[in-house]
Amino acid sequence: MVFFLPLLSCNSPVSKITEVDLENLNGEEITLSEIADDITYVPLDNDYPMSIYFQRIEILEDTIYLTEKDIGMFALDMSGKMVKRYGSKGRGPGEYMYGNKFTIDRKGQILYLLDMKSILKYSLDGTYLGKISLDKYPGNFKELRFKDSQLILFEYIALGEAVYDWIVMMTAPVTLSVKN
Predict the structure, then answer these.
(1) Which residues of the chain have pLDDT under 70?
(2) What is the pLDDT of residue 163?
């Protein structure tokens, strides 16, 4: 079992995230004072259904972004109240069937949500911006990350085989120079 502890202080919403692998402690003890100066607990709001089976969590400034199995993609404020829901379950524009994995372009303020054979794009304010089709890629993707204007998709590898291990997609226009 692995716990991720967002370490918070009064001055800055998130200064560091520490991973503690409880299965590999080998009898060692860790006290909270060794890894944190201050800890803030975020009580979850009970005004909406949650099973607390979160697929992914990201903290950006004072907002917690997360996906939850069978519930969808949403954002919470630091008091645990839902402030935004991104799309919903379904098959229409801006809707998704699974939508469990996501990444955020922090500079461009775009949230990318991986669904079955597409990536849905939302502004952080919740506006649906369109989708990127993955139909031309025969594999199934299990994860995505954003770095340096690129989306990096990782394929689900079954029985040690995959068509692609990963794919890199540019999200910003690329200028190529041609020598004549």
Answers:
(1) 1-19, 22, 49-52, 172-180
(2) 75
Continuous H helices in the chain: 32-35
Side-chain-facing half-sphere of 137: CA atoms under 13 Å = 22
Q: In the chain, what is the straight-line distance between the N-terminal and C-terminal CA atoms, in Å?
A: 58
CA 110 – CA 30 distance, rounded (Å) = 37
Rounded Cα distance between 40 and 18, Å, is 14
Which of 57, 86, 55 has its CA nearest to residue 70?
55
> Are 63 and 79 in contact, with CB atoms under 8 Å apart?
no
3-state secondary structure 142-159: EEEEEECCEEEEEECCEC
Instruction: Determine phi and psi for 82, rounding to 5 degrees.
Output: -70, 125
Place of tokens 């949500």: 113
Partnered with residue 18 across adjacent β-strands are: 5
